[in-house]
């Protein structure tokens, strides 16, 4: 019998593939690295969490992918392929055709993201008409429909209001409606639940989770809240001081963190069951300023597991589990971190 020579079915190409992304800003006559060698992939209809403390480089990474960094002298290297098209170095005119239509962003503060002198509806209408040849009446009909789909009460009336006339939760819903107005394939959500109360936060997270089903969107979720990641994301990328500390499927990474920084973030979450701790664990110290990064592991000065090998050079990413990698020397030395109980990590916002 002849052997089956049929080739295996190729795996689908990722929607977004970032490789070795570096962002540096000029300061005092030298270039200061803010983001160093960040790599990740985002598949179709996938939600990827980009997590880390403030100043870890999350927003800078997203802004570089979006082509929104225009500071004089900034240096952006590496690759960001969106459906096979290179975004790094793309001409501004071509990038503008992508932004809003195929790649959209939910900004951290909708109060400052919206223009205060125009109504919510006018601003959403404008984005639709900038990318599609439709009439004002058709654009407004889509705006009202989208606001309704986002759970905005009386969307026709809300469309005629100014940003300051809406609550924080309604402004965020309007921002999501604007981001979805041209049905983008990739949605970047930069801490979309900041400054919202817990109930509204839960509603916004449920809305983000539903986008892949209702609009077929992939989401890059930027946050510092591990509970939000556990509630929302399929996979997780942990950044520390502009470098990748760990990456992997969210359930695996939360149950068995491979990097001490990830374990420390999870340990700081209040437990749902068992005895109530007198004090929550904290991470001593603060992240280093970009100019003061140590030669070796950036987390070394704050790490309870630090030793001499950590201080020589930044550890490379090594496999620590199924599709999971960590930039730490512990796994190569056969000293894995203790497993975590998922019950303490998935509390997030209430469903």
TrEMBL record:
Subcellular localization: Cell inner membrane
GO cellular component: plasma membrane
Coiled-coil residues: none
An annotated GO BP: transmembrane transport
Highest rank taxon of the organism: Bacteria
GO molecular function: ATP binding; ATP hydrolysis activity
Keyword RNA-binding in annotation: no
PROSITE patterns for this protein: ABC_TRANSPORTER_2
Sorted UniProt keywords: ATP-binding, Cell membrane, Membrane, Nucleotide-binding, Transport
CDD domains hit by this protein: ABC_NikE_OppD_transporters
Keyword S-adenosyl-L-methionine applies: no
Record-linked InterPro entries: AAA+_ATPase, ABC_Ni/Peptide_Import, ABC_transporter-like_ATP-bd, Oligopep_ABC_C, P-loop_NTPase
ABC transporter domain ranges (all copies): 16-266
One Pfam family named in its UniProt record: oligo_HPY
Primary localization class, coarse: membrane
Topology of the protein relative to the lipid bilayer: Peripheral membrane protein
Entry's family note: Belongs to the ABC transporter superfamily.
Protein name per UniProt: Oligopeptide transport ATP-binding protein OppD
Native species: Novacetimonas maltaceti
Gene name of this polypeptide: oppD_1
């Amino acid at each position: 019998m002849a052997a089956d020579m049929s080739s295996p079915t190729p795996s689908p190409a990722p929607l977004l593939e970032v490789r070795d992304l570096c962002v540096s800003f000029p300061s005092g006559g030298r270039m200061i690295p803010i983001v160093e060698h960040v790599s990740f992939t985002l598949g179709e209809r996938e939600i990827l969490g980009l997590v880390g403390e403030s100043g870890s480089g999350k927003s800078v990474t997203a802004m570089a992918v979006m082509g929104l960094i225009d500071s004089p002298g900034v240096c952006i290297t590496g690759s960001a392929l969106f459906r096979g098209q290179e975004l790094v170095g793309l001409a501004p005119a071509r990038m503008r055709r992508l932004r809003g239509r195929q790649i959209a962003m939910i900004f951290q503060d909708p109060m400052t993201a919206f223009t205060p002198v125009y109504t919510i509806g006018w601003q959403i209408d404008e984005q639709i008409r900038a990318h599609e040849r439709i009439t004002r009446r058709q654009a407004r009909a889509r705006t009202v429909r989208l606001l309704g789909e986002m759970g905005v009460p009386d969307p026709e009336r809300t469309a005629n209001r100014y940003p300051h006339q809406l609550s924080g939760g309604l402004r965020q819903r309007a921002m999501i409606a604007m981001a979805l107005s041209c049905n983008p394939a990739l949605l970047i959500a930069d801490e979309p639940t900041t400054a919202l109360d817990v109930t509204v936060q839960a509603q916004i997270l449920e809305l983000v989770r539903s986008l892949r089903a209702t609009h077929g969107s992939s989401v890059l979720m930027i946050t510092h809240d591990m509970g939000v990641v556990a509630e929302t994301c399929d996979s997780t990328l942990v950044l520390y001081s502009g470098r990748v500390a760990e990456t992997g499927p969210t359930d695996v990474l939360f149950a068995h963190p491979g990097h001490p920084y990830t374990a420390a973030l999870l340990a700081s979450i209040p437990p749902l069951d068992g005895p109530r701790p007198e004090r929550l664990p904290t991470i001593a110290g603060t992240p280093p300023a970009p100019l003061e990064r140590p030669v070796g592991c950036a987390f070394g000065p704050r790490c309870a597991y630090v030793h001499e090998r950590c201080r020589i050079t930044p550890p490379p990413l090594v496999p620590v589990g199924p599709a999971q990698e960590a930039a730490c020397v512990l796994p190569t030395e056969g000293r894995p971190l203790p497993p975590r109980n998922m019950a303490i990590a998935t509390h997030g916002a209430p469903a």
